[in-house]
Amino acid sequence: MIGFWDVIGRSESGPLVKEKEFDLRVGRVARQMIEKYDIKYDPQNVIPADDGLADRVYQAGLDLFLELGIYCRDTGRLMKFTRDEVQWALKHAAATVTYGQGRDMATMTYRAVEDRKPPFCIMTPVGAPVAEERFVPMVQSYAQEPLAQTFSSAFSQTVHGRPIKSGTPQEVEAAIWNVIKLREAARAAGRPQIGIHNLVSNAERTDAILAAVQADFGVQPNDGLCIAATAELKIDYERVKKTVFLRQSGHNKYGLYGPLVGGYAGGPQATALVHIAHHFLGLLAFEAQWHCGFPLHIHHGCNTTRELLWLVSLTAQALSRNTRLLITANTFAAAGPCTEMVAYEIVAHALAATVAGADLDLAAVARNRHPEHATGMEARIGAEAGHLIARQGVTREQANEIVKQILTQYEDQLADAPIGKRLDECYRLETLEPTQAYLELYEQVKEKLGKFGLDYSLL
Amino acid sequence: MNAKAEANLIEAIVDATVHYDEARCVALARQAVDQGLDPFKVIRDGYSRGMQIVGDKFSTLEYCLPEVMLAADAMNAATEVLKPHLIQSHASDSEGVIVIGVIQGDIHDLGKNIVKIMLRAAGFTVHDLGNDAPVRRFIEKAEELSADIIAASAILTTTMSYMPDIASMLSELGLRDKYMIMLGGAPVIADWAMEVGADGYGEDAVEAVDVAKRLMQKKRGGQQT
User: What is the CATH number of domain A96-458?
Assistant: First the structure.
C-alpha cells in the first residue's frame, strides 16, 4: 500500500536533482525505452491496430516512470516509486466517477478498445478567452448540448469590468464569479444540475480557486477541479494543495497532462511514453479519479497532426488494454469555429480516441487562444462523431483508413489554420442557436465523412 | 593559419555545434584561440551558424528540445573559452541586451527557455529573470543592465493580464522610450500584444529572434545590426 501522505513525503526526502538535469534525463530515458521496447512511429498507421505495440508502449511508459519518478519543483527532489506501489495504486483507482444530480447525473466508466459503449462527453471551451458579457452565452452553448455530460468554463477577460490578475484580490472575486456564472449558465440551458468537472478557469492560484468551491455559489457536492502536472513529469505544491482540499471536501478531481511532442521527451514515440507515465503521476500525486490528456505539438499547438493522432490513439489503447483507468482525450484543434477544417480535425481526433477506449473532452479550438473563438457546436461535432463511431462499431483498421482520408482535408493547412468566426458570428445570441451557415457547413462535412465511411444515420 | 585551414576549422565548429558535442566544441574553441583566429568571427560563423541550423532542425522537429538544450550548452561552454580573447571593440558587439522572464504568477517556463536559447545563439546578451517575475523586476533589471529589450512570456490567461503593466509602468516612470517590449506565450496573440503596448510579438522562438533583430534595428535608428 502507498498512501497519499507517503507519496507527498517523498517530495521532502527523495534525492536532490537539478531541474535541468531532470529535463534532459526525460529524453535520455525515453530514448532507451523506445529502443528496448522497439517502438516505432508509422505515419501510415495513424490509428495503429497492433495490440503488441500498445502493450509495449504501456510497459515502456511504466518502466520510464519507475526510472524517472516525479520531479517536485518546490523541493528539487525526485519522488521515486516501486512497481508494486504503482500496481497497488492502479488496483485501487476509481472505477467510476459521477457528476451532476437528478436527471443531469452522469457516470463515467471504463471503456475498452473498440468499445461499443459511447464515450463519456465532457464539453468545454477549455478556458478560451471571452468578454465578460458573453461569458454565460459561451458556456451555455456547451451546457445545452444534448450529449454534454459535464461542462466547464471559458476565461472571462474581466470581472465587474476589471481585468483578472493572478495573485491579486481580484482573482478571488473572479473565481467566485466564475462559479456563480457557470451554474447560472446551467440553469439557462435547462440543465440546472449538470456536473461541472472543472469549476474555475478564471483563476490560477489555489487560494482563489478554493475560495470559490462553496455550495452557496452553486457548487454541487460532486462538481470538481483539475490538477495539472506543470511540465513533463513535474508537480508543484501550489497545485498539489488542491488535492489535499478535494480529499477532504469530497469533490471530484482529475489529472491534467499536456506533454509536448518536440519538447523535453522528444518525438512522438518518446512523448507517448511520457504521456503514459503521467497517468501514474496523477494517480499517485493527485489521487486523480480520471485522467485528461492534451498532448500537443510544440509548434502547432494542437493535437490533430498525424503524429499526435497516432500518440493519442496508441496511448489510449495502451492504457485501456492494461488498466481500468478512466481516460479522456482533450481535442486541441488548430482551426477555429465555423470552418470545415475544425470539423475535420475534431472528427479525426474523436476517431483516434474513441476506438482506442478513451472518453472525449471537447474541444479547444483556434489553438485555444483567440478571444470569442469557441462554441458549443465544435463540442457537438466531436460528441456526435464519438457516439456514432461507437454505435457503428468502427474498428481501428477502419478508423485508420477513415482518418487518413480526413487528414487529406486539412493536414497541409495546420501551420496556417483559419481561426474561424466568433461566437456572435456562429450563434444567434438571442436564442443561442447555431447559425444556418454553421449548420449547413456541418451538414456538408458530414456528407463527405459519410463517403469516408462514417454512417451519420446512426445518430 | 591559411584560409582553407581556417574554413575547415569553422566548418568543424558548425558540425560540432549541430551535433551538440560539447567536448569537441570546447576543444575547437581552444584550437581557434591557439591558432589566432578572431574569436568574434569564430562565434558568428561557427557556433552561431551551428545554432541556426539547430533552430532549423527544431522547427521541423528533426531535433527536439533536448538537442536544442545540449547544443546551446555546447556553444556556451565554447564561448566561455573565447570570451577572454574577444578584443574590446568586439566585446560590445552584442546584438543587443535583453531582459527576459515569465510574468508574475506564472511558472511555465518552457517557451521562455527556448526563446532564451535562440536569442543567445543569435548573439544577444540575455538576462533571465526566471519564473513569476513581477513587472517591477523586469524594469529594475533593464535599468541595471542598460538593456535594449524587455521580453515577457505568459502561458496562462490569468497571468497575461500583467503584461500591459510593462508599458504602463515604463510610461509612469518616464522610461517608455528607453526600451523595446516583446511579448509572447501560448495565450498571447499579436493584436493583443500590440494593443497593450508591445513593440513586438513572437509566435515562436524562431520568430522571436527575427522580431528582436527588427526591434534592435528600430532602436538603433534603422542601422543594420
Answer: 3.20.20.460
